[in-house]
Amino acid sequence: MDPSGGVLAARFGLAQQPGVASLAAVARHGMTGARDDHVQRLPLGVDVVVAPGSADIAAGSVGVIARHADRALRHLAPMVIVDAGRLYPGSPATDLVAAADVVVLVATPLTEYLDHLDTRLSTLSDSVQRDRVGLVFVGKGPYAAAEIVARLAVPVWAELPRDPRGAGVLAGRLMGRTWQRTALVRALRDLAVTVRQRAPQPDTAGLEAVDR
Fold first, then answer.
1. DSSP string, 141-190
2. Domain 80-212, what fold?
3. Which of 135, 182, 192, 177 lies closest to 162 in space, CA to CA?
4. CA angle 131, 193, 105 (to 5 degrees)
5. Is the pLDDT of residue 109 over 90?
6. Which of 11, 43, 45 is nearest to 171 (CA)?
7. Taking the domains of the chain in order of start, what are their residue ranges?
8. How confident is the model over 84-108, as a mean pLDDT?
């Protein structure tokens, strides 16, 4: 759901349809369609709804889906993880973030990125309660997690290692039977547990949004 366009199809050799554009087409007419009408499977065994590479098509599709978030997304799986791309004023994905049960903001813990985070949090405060938001940092920075929490008033849910092999697997560049044991994937597994604990129970809802 990145309005700038998607990369999963290109990275993993998938077709750009079905995906976000097909989902938007049925959502525009008040329908959901069958789950398999929009979902493809990555070689990693993960089901995905891929976005088109074109920013124009992606932005329009995301805008439609955002206006019908509950109907368009919640039927896809007990938990749906939405990559909302980079949040900016007027992003078509803003309504998706507001509809999410849990919001995960991903950044590098350096001063310039923390400044951006501070701005994004102020923008989100009108539509997202702070207890639904958590921070995930990639790599190390000059500040301890406690200092960041004190400044931003949002908890740090995970600190992801810089792991070239794990990142290569998730980017479609590397494969192998041991990818689930990489440092990055182990950290993501722990993050998934934290997110699940923060989210409503499966019988009530399950929509998480990620801004990177």
1. -SS-HHHHHHHH-S-EEEEE---HHHHHHHTTS---TTGGGSHHHHHHHH
2. Rossmann fold (3.40.50)
3. 182
4. 45
5. yes
6. 11
7. 1-77, 80-212
8. 91
